[in-house]
Amino acid sequence: MNSSVSTQRFLARTLAAPESPTSLTETLADGTRLTLLDAGVLRISPTQPGSHRALISCGVHGNETAPMEIVDQLVSDIFNGQLKVNNELMFVIGNPPAAIAEQRFVEENLNRLFSGKHRHSTAKEAARAARLEALTEAFFLDGDEPRLHYDLHTAIRGSYIEKFAVYPYLHSRTWSESQFGFLEQAGIEAVLLSNQPSGTYSYFSSHEFGADAFTIELGKVRKFGDNDMRRFAQMTESLRRVVDGTERFVARRQAIKIFAVVEEVIKRSENFKLHIPDEAKNFTEYDAGALLASDDDYEYRTQRDGERFVFPITNVPPGQRAMLVVAPVTDLTELTEA
Ligand SMILES: [Zn+2]
Question: Which family would the database say this protein is a member of (predicted)?
């Protein structure tokens, strides 16, 4: 294996050696410093302090290839000098062994294991979650610039809203209007506001380090090579502006839709059932009273017109989330008192 960081593409290198920890440092011609901290974890420091400290992650689910190709292209353009770095950056390919296997995960969903939840698991992904937590902490605490984390995903099923972001639960903090504007400019059509803590990577960055952090869904899962990268051009362009420091976060929210999570449906037992068709798309809309899920001593019926489901999945262990139910928000100030 070549000892230089920049002579091999980031994604190819990561998939060629998915579990061997490596620590390699290299300086580009313009003084930008690259450090490969672990398989799929690359820190990049500009020569001058920037305005932000940005974590851009992908492949937390191994079969979600388009985000990995977006990140690979950004890193490649940094290596070859086409994209100048003016902010502190960390790029993460979350679950390389799962990416090689072309699976969502090898033993357990990595995006349920952050914020210490890995301590209750012996899955391969638990060790990776602990390692990513440590590297993420070191990155964010290394300076006091405003912190950003964009965790890029694609979804298993089709969706009435193709591109959307999940805003982690903020506890006493409030939503960032400038981030709504940024996401809209990046082609994101809707934002879901979470109503409780979770084990996601974005919640970890948000809660532990006060980062403006989002899980970003960019469309449907496809295999490597089958992605039409033009579909991701707006997001890619926006991330390039984060890298080169030209993004000022001054765009205003205009048409982006906002939804609040009204119910997190948990699978309680093996008798859990979803009452929606297999092929139904995310954001399918219902009138009040529709039965969406049932279990021993539990059922979820929509409480009011306009509720929609997102991320339905029955193939999870009892105790895990099987679906989110969301409802449109017309006035954010109505929520802030909640
Ligand atoms: Zn995902």
Answer: Belongs to the AspA/AstE family. Succinylglutamate desuccinylase subfamily.
Check 88, 125, 133, 217 and give the catalytic one.
217
Judged against a pLDDT cut of 90, whether residue 332 lies above it is answered with: no
Position 160 scores a pLDDT of 95
275 assigned ligand-binding residue: no
Q: How far is the CA of 293 from the centre of ligand 1 (A)?
A: 22
pLDDT over threshold 90, residue 304: yes
Q: What is the pLDDT of residues 1-26, one digit of tens each?
A: 445 777 779 999 999 988 776 678 99
Total number of domains in the chain: 2
Calculate how far, in angstroms, residue 111's C-alpha sits from the geometric centre of ligand 1: 8
Task: Report the separation in Å between the CA atom of 43 and the middle of ligand 1, taken as the mean of its atom positions.
Answer: 22
Could you tell me if residue 253 is inside a domain? no
- In which domain, by residue range, is 313 found? 261-336
Three-class SS of residue 212? strand
Inter-residue long-range contacts of 316-321, CB under 8 Å, 24+ positions, other chains counted? 316/109, 316/267, 317/267, 318/267, 318/268, 318/269, 318/270, 318/272, 319/266, 319/267, 319/268, 320/109, 320/112, 320/266, 320/267, 321/112, 321/198, 321/264, 321/265, 321/266, 321/267
153 is in an annotated binding site: yes
279 flagged as catalytic: no
* Whether residue 337 has pLDDT greater than 60: no
Domain containing 330 — which CATH number? 2.40.50.630
Asked if pLDDT for residue 313 goes beyond 70, the answer is yes
Q: Within a domain: residue 31? A: yes
Distance 156 CA to ligand 1 centre (A): 8
Residue 205 confidence class, pLDDT cut points 50, 70, 90:
very high
Q: How far apart are CA 95 and CA 110, in angstroms?
A: 8
On whether 120 is known to bind a ligand per the annotation, the reply is: no
